[in-house]
Amino acid sequence: MDKSHFNTFIFSNANKIYYYVFCILKDHKQSLQIVSQTIEECWDKRSEIAPTDLHKVFQLARKLAKSNASYSNVSQHSTQSDQYLQNVNPVLKKFCLLIKDYAPLQAEVICLRSLARLSVDEIALILEVGINNVISILANARKMMRSAIDPVGVLNDFSCHELLPKYYSGNTSIDEEEQLRLFVSRMDLTEIPDADREILLMFLKLGNAEIPVEDSEMLTSKLKELQTGKIKKAFSKFRKQSK
Question: Which domain of life is it from (predicted)?
Answer without folding.
Answer: Bacteria
